[in-house]
């Protein structure tokens, strides 16, 4: 071989050796094979922390399950993710949120398993055979260990249960089943298909599923408590609405029964109630109105029942065609205190007893039965006093004909500060000018 060729080959070998041992240049890869670096393992602890934080914000069990299955689908990438969630009744497990490329393509909620189904019994009853499957169960590993598990080998009944549970896992497209326990009770089962990559599940991933199941159990218990509380509140509210409706109707019927005893004032209670609600609409933003727990409702009931004490007044006095004697008038004046006594004994109406008792008090302290003065008179009673007087003046009575509305307005205006609260009178005059005291117009409540 010529010398220059020999020298050239030596030079090539020297360059190659330098390159091979250089700190800046990686060594040559033999046979042109590209060696892949292993992918860094996903930090499932961070994922768990993020999922757990999300769980705290969710109050509906189904929504919580959808969040968890979505997280599994995104982080692990499996062919199928779903959950069997125990129903509130406790005797049925419903398939929730089947997602993934091989998800079960039927309406969610259609598949239901009972406590007698083999997969449910597998987790609930295996303890009876001195073996407990309380962690994630891998279909492939269970198949492989079927003939080696001493408990399964010794118990034909357990072997049959495991076979049927495995068959049900196949039907549900579940390669991994992760039970979710609330205390000792099975509340759900995560169903996971195979990984899209075709790889087996790592120990870290199985640990991720198990921890996620434990977190889900606590979250599900909390959401169920919240759901039960909301259901109970709704039930109580619904019951209250029904009872309240019956209560209002009973009050109206009672007021109508009292009203019917006096043919001359028939409809008086209904009109006073409407007038009172008109005034309430003008006064509802005042601090005195806000002192009531429910101002409008309290006024409504008080106006409806303001004359309930007339049940103790004889018909001969109520229907007398002419002026009342002093003794008869004193008897009529007893009706506020009589009505108050009646209402005090009724738990639901005790809060309006003071309003009923005071609706004939005067702002200057010369009214009855207690001679209360100005702000000592309950605010609602001051409102009813104006409405009651307006209707009394503008309605026929046995002893006189009704007056025109304008006359009634002037009388009430002149009595501001003596018989009536000036603020209520101002509200009355404002509402009257708006046409609110025309019974043919709609009254705003």
Describe the structure in your own words.
The chain is an alpha+beta fold and 445 residues long. It folds into two domains: 44-228, GAF domain (Beta-Lactamase, 2-Layer Sandwich); 257-433, Hypothetical protein af1432. The protein contains 18 helices and six strands. Helix 9 (268-283) packs across helix 16 (379-393) and helix 9 (268-283) crosses helix 18. The N and C termini lie far apart (117 Å).
List the helices and strands and how they pair.
Blueprint lengths: L2 H19 L22 H13 L4 H16 L4 E6 L5 E8 L12 E3 L3 H8 L11 E2 H7 L4 H5 L1 H16 L4 E7 L2 E8 L10 H57 L8 H16 L3 H4 L4 H10 L10 H4 L7 H7 L2 H10 L8 H5 L21 H15 L11 H10 L7 H12 L12
Helix pairs in contact: 2-3, 2-8, 3-8, 4-7, 9-11, 9-16, 9-18, 16-17
- The ordered string of helix (H) and strand (E) elements is HHHEEEHEHHHEEHHHHHHHHHHH
What is the total domain count? Answer: 2
For the record, the CATH architecture of the largest domain stands as 2-Layer Sandwich
The main sheet comes to: 6 strands, antiparallel
- The CATH homologous superfamily of the largest domain corresponds to GAF domain
Task: Please provide the count of β strands.
Answer: 6
Tally of contiguous helical segments: 18
Content of β-strand:
5-15%
* Spatial strand order of the main sheet: 3-2-1-6-5-4
**CATH topology descriptor of the largest domain:** Beta-Lactamase
Helix-strand makeup class? alpha+beta
Distance between the termini: 117 Å
The overall pLDDT, averaged over residues, is: 77
